[in-house]
Queue: 2 jobs
Job 1
Amino acid sequence: MREKELLSSLNKLEQTAAETADFLLEKIGKLEVEIFAHGDADGVASSLLLATFLRLRDVPFRLTFTGPFGAKDMIRLAESQEKKKLMVFLDQGGSEVDTIQRSLLETGHQVVIIDHHQGQPLTHASLSYLNPHLVGMDGGLEISAAGLTYLVVERLERSMRRLGWLAVVGALGDRQEIDGRFIGANQLLVQRMLDEGLVKKKTGLRLTGRNGSLLNALCYSVKPYLPGISGNEELCLSILKQLGLDRSATFHQVDEEKLLEAILSRCPDPEKFRKMLWGPLYHNHRYLHEEAIIAQACGMMERPAVAFGRLAGDSSLETLAWSTTLEYAKKILSALQWISFHRDSLKNTPVMRYLHVPVEASMAGELLSVSLESGILPSELPVIALVDSGTQIKVSGRVSHTAQKRYNIGVALSMSARIVGGAGGGHEAAGAAYIPKNKLDIFLSKLEEFLSGQSENRGETGVAGEG
Ligand SMILES: [Mn+2]
């Protein structure tokens, strides 16, 4: 996109953000504030931006990390309220505006939705709904919920700008940086922060764990996952040995370029991994790609509060956040190994592939993303993971960046889930749903139908992304 068009689309977004800012400002003194944020890196970064703003204004609030509610839980939420409140949904809500209307708006609550997932438009006197899709922007790639929340609070409080780096953490957590580049509103926001010196940028090795042992950083690397290296301590030690180092070596002892070459010399597809490993590093007091990975890992391990505390600067959480990240990496690595061994359980249809995976529901989406990025799963069709979760099945879907822009997995999941009494949503390239277990077959056949309809209508242009 040209600079001019970019600026005008950001302007449009900022106008809508200004309306949300006004709405928020008008309500916060009068109503109790209840925040529901998605428990991933983006949701946590969004909630920290809003929470910091509310603290500055001495406004008390309650913050809960949750996934999308679904109709039943939303009704329960509405029924459990003794007072009328200001309910704020961060990094979620877009896929369930109709439910929010029926259970919250029509029972007298005020609602703010700040979300970049695809959703239906809704206008209501008691609602402020900020969603880039509604102003013609691709929320999956061009801006995160943290970026949107930043646009809102920065308008109301200039000092919030020093927390602009949280918008970068949200975008990185949602994989909105493609081949080392941001696009759309992200690109402009990041450029502004660089110009103002609020964030710095250098080029270097994009491994996580710069403050810890080099062996751990290599051995537990899942973003990127290094085939043959991640999870293989022996090989990691031999890479260190090649550089004249032992297991006690730290990041600071090594020349990053030499380390890169040593890693690549052991990689099956060095040119592909060079692009994944070497690139821009945004930083201020911390490295933002690391912050995003750690926050995402804590979220996936169902410890979003740890991610929140760490991002808020609580240094007592350093050890717990990092050990949670390693725990998460171990789980992902063993799940990847499981997938590698069970590749024949992958079911193929002309428009998608799907498989049941034995992981926690919260990890399924990340597992698919890593499997596609690293080539463990073939990437030219949408891939669906099915995870048993009580009486329901959690469904995660991903479309690889390298796949053609023929599918909108968020819409396909949302529509097929709805038909079987479930709920779902997401972006073009990443989505999730919960469905009743006994309706799986109908769900899968509907999903296949929607995806083939999309692939016929959309032809073969463009490149898909993920958020
Ligand atoms: Mn998000």
Job 2
Amino acid sequence: MAKLNSALGPLDTADMGFTLTHEHISGSSAGFQLTYPEIVNTETVLELAVQDLTRAHQHGVTTIIDCSTYDIGRDVRLIEAVSRRSGIQVVCATGSHLYVPQTFYESMFPWMKPMPVDDVAALWIREVEEGIEGTGIKAGVIKIATNDPIRPAEEHMLRAGARTHLRTGVPITTHTPILSRVGEEQVRILLEEGVDMSHVYIGHVNSTLDRDYHLRLIDKGVWLGMDHFSPSGPPGTPDWEERSAFIKGLIDEGYQDRIMMSHDWNFGRHSGHCQLASAVSRDDHPDAFLWITNGVLPRLRELGADESAITSMMVDNPRRFFGGN
Ligand SMILES: [Zn+2]
């Protein structure tokens, strides 16, 4: 029976249930919590997150993967409190987002050598094996983000993420920019490091509705993160109905066992002002964590998707990604 690390301790993959695979309880910047706590406003975010996630839990969401790394203000004590009070199981992330610290990789001064990949990996391995910031709360997923094209510092982080995975077995989840096809390049680098693609989830691919791109990724053996879902997406990107219809097309081709879904919701960059990657305001959409439940899944059913496909995407695939049967 496979186990993964959650904010409240070891979790059996069989108990993950309905899982949103890419969300954020809070978003900020590295060090802000300490330096500018009045901007981060942890108390407000805590209250709002408990409120919304309690409702999500009451409506069937049982687990979320919080893909916040330390450079986007990860706060594991906040995550732990939200999990305890809302009843939602939360998995915390190690790794890095797009703001690679200059201590890891200085790009301004070419004569400064990057920190060796293995030294970066050692820090992340500690977050998986011992815990984050001395809390004992262990990371359960490795998040890596890149631009398109991938910058040298980001490639360095991808390799560190790969080595963290090879040592710990914890799976890798990536960020790709909207409308990009950079997932294939991420795969190339991870393959070079010897990673088995069944442990890799390429994120945000449903902003790029290019069937050939998705099929090439499926062919590599990775999971597809259809994890940008909101009532209204960023300008110039497909709307949720187009994204839903695209997924139905893949289901019709038998690919429901490669897809996972989520919103990429994020509470507050400052003072409880909440927005999603899509710039949707929480005031307009207080049930954003339930948009898949209330909007996307009913639409997929309307289009003819059966319950077994929905169970695959929302329950079985997340469990298998984390090593369950
Ligand atoms: Zn995200």
